[in-house]
Design brief:
Strand order of the largest sheet: 5-4-1-8-9-10-11-12-13
Shape: globular
Structural class: alpha/beta
Bound molecules: adenosine monophosphate
Helix content: 25-40%
Length: 305
């Protein structure tokens, strides 16, 4: 039973108040698969790049034991490019450009070996393609989905169809408000859960994340980092750590989902410490576990008896 990841693979040009990079490795699939590779195996990615995509990036993914059979390389095509600029307040980001290139005609074809019984992470792509992925699967074991404000605003009906078919939706606070038309996040979560997902995760950037089931809320802190260099991919790294841990443990209880949220938060915290994917390329399991324990200490307190 593998872990299937479908989303974007990109060359990103990113500016922060500290530095900038051009054509660095990015895309949701890239961050998700790298983050999950520290927990589990086999991981199958499905995506598209152009002929200009550096072979060394594919090699790096394969060195993390990520199966790239589902990666389509379009002869003569140009890879999807995205440009973003962060403000002094790193929570604020402007998209400078989105050049879809080969991504415009992306037709996700799921290899035979990933069609049955998979854990699935639907990265942030147009919801009609997320539906197309699900249509090809037989008896998926656990489906986690990410999305963004663009799809909530422009293709809401397709997104609502996807939501009926997923176990977990991961979104950020502003997306939750937009999707539910409700400013209060607790009320927003209740509304979103009526749309399909059994569990909902609302990420709140530097203020942590909330995990909801139908009766309980778990609040995870964010790791208090002094040096944040590039927030790009934090949400995807979170999703990768989350599903990677669940796929490793095969335990879908709410208690284990809480641990998965903390592992997701740990991977997100490593991601933002460096530009592009550098922060999650060279980790080891011990480092990740140590950060998991630090998270526990962050909000542990005793009662007064
Ligand atoms: P995040 O910081 O988690 O929102 O993810 C950033 C990644 O999303 C970047 O590496 C981009 O390449 C990718 N990205 C940006 N816009 C889109 C889009 N419209 N569709 C798919 N991926 C995108």
């Amino acid at each position: 039973m593998g872990l299937l990841i479908v989303g974007s693979i990109a060359l990103d040009s990113v500016e922060t108040p500290f530095d900038k990079v051009e054509n660095a490795l990015g895309g949701s699939t890239t961050y998700i698969s790298l983050a999950s590779s520290y927990f589990t195996y086999p991981i199958h990615i499905v995506g598209v790049v152009g002929e200009d995509f550096p072979a060394e990036y594919i090699e790096m993914l394969e060195n993390h034991e990520i199966d790239t059979e589902g990666l389509q390389i379009i002869p003569g095509g140009k890879t999807f490019r995205w440009g973003g600029r962060y403000h002094y307040d790193l929570n604020v980001r402007d998209t400078l450009f989105t050049d879809l290139n080969v991504f415009e005609n992306f037709d996700p074809i799921i290899p035979e070996k990933s069609k049955k019984n998979s854990f699935v992470l639907l990265g942030n792509i147009v919801p009609s393609l997320q539906n197309k992925v699900l249509d090809q699967l037989e008896n998926p074991k656990f489906v986690v989905c990410d999305t963004m404000n663009l799809w909530i605003e422009t293709t809401k009906d397709d997104l609502l169809d996807v939501l009926k078919r997923v176990d977990v939706l991961i979104i950020n606070d502003s997306e939750a408000r937009l999707l539910s038309n409700e400013p209060n996040l607790i009320k927003a979560a209740k509304i979103i859960q009526t749309l399909g997902p059994k569990y909902l995760i609302i990420k709140k950037g530097e203020h942590g994340a909330l995990l909801f089931n139908d009766t309980t809320i778990f609040s995870a802190p964010a790791y208090p980092l002094e040096n944040i260099y590039d927030p790009t991919g934090a949400g995807d790294s979170f999703a990768g750590g989350f599903i990677g841990y669940l796929h490793q443990t095969r335990d879908l209880s709410f208690e284990n989902l809480k641990r998965a949220v903390i592992y997701g938060s740990a991977l997100a915290s490593f991601c933002v410490e460096q530009f592009s994917t550098k922060g999650i390329e060279y980790l080891d399991k011990l480092q990740i576990h140590d950060r998991f324990l630090e998270f526990r200490e962050l909000s542990r307190f005793d009662d007064d008896e």
